[in-house]
Each structure stands twice: as C-alpha cells, then as structure tokens.
Amino acid sequence: MPVRLMPALLIPALLICLLSLAPLAAQAQSIRLLRDADIEHGLSELARPVLQAAGLNPRRLRILVVDDSGFNAFVIDQRAIFVNYGLILKAETPEMLQAVLAHEAAHIANGHIGRRGQNARSASTAAGFGTALALLAAAAGGGEAAVGIAIGTQSSALRSFLSHTRAEEASADRSALAFLTRAGINPEGMIALHRIFAGQEVLSSRHQDPYMRSHPLTRDRIRAAEAYVASVGPGPDTGPEASPETNPDAAYWLARVKGKLSAFTRAPRWSKRRLVSERYSDVKHMRAAVAHHRQNDLARAREEMQALLRARPQDAFYHDLWGQILHENRRWSEAEAAFGRAAALAPSEPLILAGLGRAQLAAGRPGAALVTLEKARDLDFRNATLLRDMSLAYAQTKQSGMAALVTAERYALQGRLSDAGPHARRATALLPNGSPPWRRAQDVLIAFEHDEKRKKK
C-alpha cells in the first residue's frame, strides 16, 4: 500500500508491524498499525463530513488502520480514530464505515476521552501503555505506510482500556446518528453496521471481540437506530420513501481503500479473480499492479502502473505506490524519481516524504535523505521505519549521537524499553549536555530506568 518493505526482510511491509507479541509468559498483546498515505487519505475523505458535523477538525484527527482482521474500532485521544482493517473490508457501503467513524467521533465530541486517558495511565505493563502514550503525547502525528506505532499491553490492560459503560456507548450511538443525519449521510448505515456484529453475540465471551463485551447488545442498538431513523423520516428534499443517496465520492474512496487493503492482505490470485467486478478503472489497475508485484512480475506490474499513471498523472499516491514497487525491486534511481514526483505533488504528506528519504538513502545519498526524513518526522513522529532510516542516515553522515538517539526513540516507541535504554545512555554521552537532543535522550533513559525498577519489584 505503499506498504513498504523493511529492506533486510524483503516481505510486504504492510504485513510487518512494529511490535511482535510480547513473551507469552507476560500474556501480552499489541495494537499494531498499518500505515499508508493513500488509505489514510481515503479514510479522511470518508470521515470529513462526519467530523465536521460533530464539530471536530478533520485536519487534526487522523483515521488509522489497525492490523487486525476483527470488527472493531476505538479511540485513545482526541487526535485519532483507530479502525481494524477487517471492519473496513467488511463494510459494504460507505454509510456503514461512516457510521463507525461517527460513533468513535461521538466519544471524542461527548468528552468520553478523559475517562479513557485515566484508564490508559493506570495500565501497568511491560510495554508500558502509559509510557507509550506519554511519548506520543509529546509528539505530533502519524506514522509510516509499512510500519506504524505499536502500543504493547497486557490483555487485561487492553480490556480495561476498551471497556466503557454501556450508557456511554448508547450515548455515542445517539450522537453518531445525529452526526450522520446532519452530514446528509443515510443513518440506516448504522443499522447495517450493527447487523454485521450480530453473529458475535452467539460466541462465548472468550471468543468475542472486546468490542462486543464493552458495548450494548446488538439487538438493542439495532432497535434504537431503527427508532431514530423512523423518527427523523425522509429528508426535506426527498419523496416520502426516499433516503439520502450514497455520495459518489464516498463510494469511490471506499472502493479505493478496500481495493488497496485487499490487494495487500489477500492472496494475489484472489485479487486477480475479482478484477472483473471492479467498477473504477484506476482502482482496477492499482489492484492488478499490486497483485503482479506480489507475484514478482515487475514487467506486468509496470504495464499496469504505466496505464494507471497515464490516467491519473497528478495523483501523488499512485506515484508513491510506483516508487514502492520499484524500491522493492531494487530499482533505486527509478524509485527515487517516482517518490520525488509524489513528494512534488504532495509536499506535506509525511508518509510520502518518508518513502523518498528511504529511496535517497538506498541510492547512496544519506545527506539528502536526512533532510527529507527530518522534514517527514517534523510532520509525523509515530513512524518506526522512519526512525530506523534516520539512524542509518545519521550514522552514514558521522553523527553518532543522533543515530543513538533516534534508535533509542524507535525502541521506546515500540515499547522495547530494555533495548532503548543502552542507546539512550550512549546518546547522552555523545550529545552536547543540555541540548534539545540530549534532553530527548534523557526522557527515554528515565523511562527505561523506571521500567527497570518496576521489573524488580
């Protein structure tokens, strides 16, 4: 998607996540993100009318995809809504996905986040839910197409964090329906959404998604949504039986988001079989290009991408995808040119800038890469792959202290404080005492020392 590869692994980076599961003895699990500029842009387009109706700023609130095939969505703070990729793929209409976004936006608009922040601060785990959130609170933004932020938690802490009162959830549903109506989106999408959760209720609690254990019963939510839809009736400019029609732009962005997600998460043969049913020609070319790429057929991937870029020459995200494909095929100069074109079209998109910086680094230009990567990081802190690339660029430009610092921050962002500590200690020894980078290294070192003390208790 641009799901970029970690160079040493040579597997689709969409499937590589920041934090693997912690040791089984700790019974830990992780929340892992799939970061892609194109997908996040599409989700933002779908979310914009909902967020505006909720009184939230669409430019300040990211929609982030969780690497989980289950049907779930949640919020941690006022800056992001997290949606499992499985729920996105399950959404049959834009209205269903917009209902999810409206529900989570309601938690933010209704002030439910304060209680969740308290739950997060009280979570005491090896990966450090509180530590991770504290690091993120000091930062400013998103992540990277391949590898995003992982928040490691013990399963009990995650359940505590996601367990909200049913009254709170019912309130969010009511507000979400009002937001949808205000935005001109058919609120019946909420009813359809609840029906996809209905099968969860027949499962034992051990097999249910945590979402189901913390939300009102689906049948109650369906009844409430149906009552709301009946009460508002048809819109003022429609006939007696009419409902708001699907916005064509929303339909396109849902198809593009689902097309790219499925192209990278499903088998290539599955994608190829479904090309005939793809209604949007650019999405069809994109899905075909990804399928050929994943089957190591660069020639056919190139044909599809050339047709795609002829049709959409000003689409930065498609140039970014082409850069990714070339980079993963070790065509360094071509990749740099493709990423450069994408960055020229979208100069403030941090994920695209991160791809360009990685290509510059691979092409043997660490100085140029460092300039690009630092710009990307200023826009988007939560990006472990970016930090890895930055550490390489700093090392290759003989800035050992900064290389140690960003390595420490990368491990801390992953919840690997035991690995972060030695690098932070080295950074404090190499960086000018009292300088801003030195203070950043001290922050990581203090977190490491606190974690070590906790382990000894």
Can you put this structure into words, describing what you see?
By secondary structure, the protein is mainly alpha-helical. The chain folds into two domains: 13-232, no CATH class; 280-456, Alpha Horseshoe (Serine Threonine Protein Phosphatase 5, Tetratricopeptide repeat), CATH 1.25.40. Helix content is 61%, strand content 5%. It has 22 helices and five strands. The protein has helices at residues 37-53, 85-90, 94-109, 113-122, 129-137, 155-162, 166-182, 188-197, 210-214, 218-232, 248-265, 268-273, 281-294, 298-311, 316-328, 332-345, 350-362, 366-379, 384-396, 400-413, 417-430, 436-456, and strands at residues 28-34, 62-66, 73-75, 80-84, 150-154. It has a five-stranded mixed sheet. A hairpin with a 4-residue loop joins strand 3 and strand 4. Helix 17 runs antiparallel to helix 18 (366-379) and helix 20 packs across helix 22 (436-456). The radius of gyration is 22 Å and the shape is globular. The protein starts with 27 loop residues before the first strand and ends with a helix. The relative contact order is 0.11. Mean pLDDT is 79; it is low at 1-29, 119-156, 201-205, 210-214 and 235-241.
